[in-house]
Amino acid sequence: MIPKAHSLFWVACLLFLAHCKETPSIREPINPIPAMTARQLQQSYLNGKTDRPFSYQDPFFSNKIGPFTILQRPNWANFSPLTGLLEGIPTQLGNVNGVVFQSGSGANLVSSSPLGFPVLGDPLKPVGLDMGIRQVLNLDITGDGVRIAISDTGLEIKHEDLRDNVIPNASKNYLSGSEDPTLLDQSQGFCHGTAVAGVIAMTGWNGVGGRGIAPYAGIAGLNFLEGFNKNPASANLFLLDQAQGNFDIFNQSWGAEQNTWVPTPPGSSIDLYFQKLQAGANNLRGGKGALYVKAAGNVPEINAAVDPYQRSPFLIVVGALDSVDRKAAYSSSGANLWLSAFGGEPVTPGSSPKLITTDSSGCQKGLSRSGNCNYSSNYQGTSFAAPAISGTIALMLEQQPQLNWREVKHVLASTALKVEPGNLGWITNKAGFHFHNAFGFGKVQAEQAVLMAKSFQVGSLGALETVQGSVNSSFPLSISSEASASLAMEVSQDLVIETVAVELNLEHEDLQNLQIELMSPTDSTGASGTKSILLARASSPDSSNIPGVKFISNAFYGEPAAGTWTLSIANSSSTRSGNLRSVTFSLLGHRP
């Protein structure tokens, strides 16, 4: 099973990358407003604030001697003759000049001196949303001291906007054995890792390029994908190395082809990789555990769980949003998602924009072929949503480095924003968490996550435990045409759920006709449990069996585990049938 980068064809989306020529030092407040005249104050307020309302009343208004009028009004602003207010939200960059207020008429006509001010900032800001990164940077939180491994195609460690954040002697080139994972062949499509790195950690306030989400975080490149593809004999060893090392966060913007169900039996290469993930969660960061951030994939019609590399509770699987908080058209869905972030969209008339980030240096490499070729505005994919989460976690860990990996996940889930609230796929579970297979718990909110991390009671989740449910059924269980098969599973332990896993071994003549659901126990009031769709109808690849595949569901987060769970398999085919051969059921969580 060959991993691939999770990005599609990649145009500018200044969703979370800010301008670089602002305050030169993060140690000072960003965009401070000094004492100045009203007009100077308004000018300062506009700089870099194209998303904020402009409101100005010229002092001339207090001396009016007749009707109040305005000349050269900006087309984005409204003017009230009654109040003298010029108001609006700027939508165009550049200088506004020659705005003149007048009062009176004829021989008594008097005019103010011309008003001029610059409009700076992000011209696309009014049409998009953000993650609250600027508010975090205003708190002097930049990811400083946090170490992030970028497992990808490679990383151009001498790039002008990345080199200051590259951790010395920490990167790996699996082909040459050196500590420089810069790709020699960086023709179009081979700059993926460098682009991912820019989203996380383009250096801040250095006078070039842009600014990453965690602009002072340390980064290292692991050219896993290049090594995997060019040296397949050592590919399994390279895979294991993507979960170990002196790092706090591992960003993995790659996955497998989602065209068949692949089992991960004990001792298989992917099973050994999962064991390394678990070991990293137990032992790295001084026992607090590393964070593994994984792109969900770019195959929207196929369940994300088809990718065998995603079937671990120790991963944070990330879906993609467009610039107005809608599911990106390409983003994979599944109950294993944890969170979503901006990933850009294909550029078509009326669509949302793509992402801007670092590209391979020079106009002969990477995607850019003109202008400043060290950057590109042509990226999209869950590959670029995942590093948005990695960058946010870096901000959280600088604020509160004692958080363990489970506490980081808890804070992210607790502060996520429910987006597209009218979408019928949203559920609210028994613990009050909103969940959707397309979004996980929702959109990451960096400011809220950092603030919650600061006040979070470290250790309050207790120790992680695993319990096994008992399955009350004999096998094989027939899955008849146009019928549903169900079985009960009992859990006796008193546990607060963090993750649920169901491993299925079934065969069916057409898996596209099946929908598989898991229902949590009825509560003490008699209210039915939470329903999680493990496999939606028509979301399986063309296949005749699911051979021992583990489905992860995060939909039950925070719920009590004890009671009778129900697994249901609905078959919509009138002619095709199958059998469920075996089921295992396990839950991870902590004591109340």
List the helices and strands and how they pair.
Layout: E1 3-5, H1 38-46, E2 54-57, E3 68-71, E4 77-79, E5 85-88, E6 94-103, E7 110-111, E8 115-119, H2 133-137, E9 147-151, H3 192-201, E10 218-222, H4 224-230, H5 235-240, E11 249-252, E12 254-256, H6 269-283, E13 291-295, E14 315-321, E15 337-342, E16 355-358, E17 375-379, H7 382-399, H8 405-415, E18 427-428, E19 434-435, H9 446-455, E20 465-472, E21 477-479, E22 483-491, E23 496-508, E24 514-519, E25 531-535, E26 545-553, E27 563-571, E28 578-590
Parallel strand pairs: 9-10, 9-11, 11-13, 13-14, 14-15
Antiparallel strand pairs: 1-12, 2-5, 3-6, 4-5, 6-7, 6-8, 16-17, 18-19, 20-22, 20-28, 21-28, 22-27, 23-26, 23-28, 24-25, 24-27
Helix pairs in contact: 3-7, 7-9, 8-9
Please, could you describe this protein's structure?
The chain has 9 helices and 28 strands. With 592 residues, it is α+β, with helices and mostly antiparallel strands. The protein has 3 domains: 3-19 and 127-455, Peptidase S8/S53 domain (Rossmann fold, 3-Layer(aba) Sandwich); 38-121, Sandwich (Immunoglobulin-like); 465-590, Galactose-binding domain-like (Jelly Rolls, Sandwich), CATH 2.60.120.260. The strands form 7 sheets. Strands 20, 21, 22, 23, 24, 25, 26, 27 and 28 form a 9-stranded antiparallel β-sheet that branches. It has helices at 38-46, 133-137, 192-201, 224-230, 235-240, 269-283, 382-399, 405-415, 446-455, and strands at 3-5, 54-57, 68-71, 77-79, 85-88, 94-103, 110-111, 115-119, 147-151, 218-222, 249-252, 254-256, 291-295, 315-321, 337-342, 355-358, 375-379, 427-428, 434-435, 465-472, 477-479, 483-491, 496-508, 514-519, 531-535, 545-553, 563-571, 578-590.
